[in-house]
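Schema walk-through. Below, the input block comes first and the output block second. Nothing else is stored per chain. Lengths vary across the set, and this one has 175 residues.
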Amino acid sequence: MKNLFLLYAFLIFTCSCSDDANAQNNKDIFTIYLVRHSEKDLSANNLSDPPLTLCGVQRSENLSDFLKDVHLNIIYTTDYLRTKSTAFPTANSKGLEIELYDAQQLKDFSQLLIDRQQDALVVGHSNTTGVLAGLLTGEDIGAFDLDIYDRVYQVVIYKNKGRLHLLHVSVDCNE
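--- output ---
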């Protein structure tokens, strides 16, 4: 029930932002959603690029459901199986291709996101997602703990100034 309330509040806010015809026509407003990849399988043979756990797959599908009514122009991930697998259900449901970005070049990537002025989903890592949100908003936001997977950073950019909304989306894992 709590998740449903958060979703409705989120959708109301998103819709109220997109109803401003003047802002939409001028491309002055757009929204970037940043998430960390879902749970990775640390028991996998390839520890440098492990797949998602069953819970991670569920979380990724839940993210797609969460973003079902949200307009997206583009989806970005790093070049790892776990980030691409997290983004895949959303990309598939929206008919979008996944574009790769370099997590070692966050400052340049943040500027690209601002310059492109597109509604986007960015899937990253615990040490990049908060940092990127900070670059987009001018705030000092660092990395977060490795056991945190429920954060969605919603950054609304209006006239090149970002405003951050931190959302928490929990998943009841059936693993």
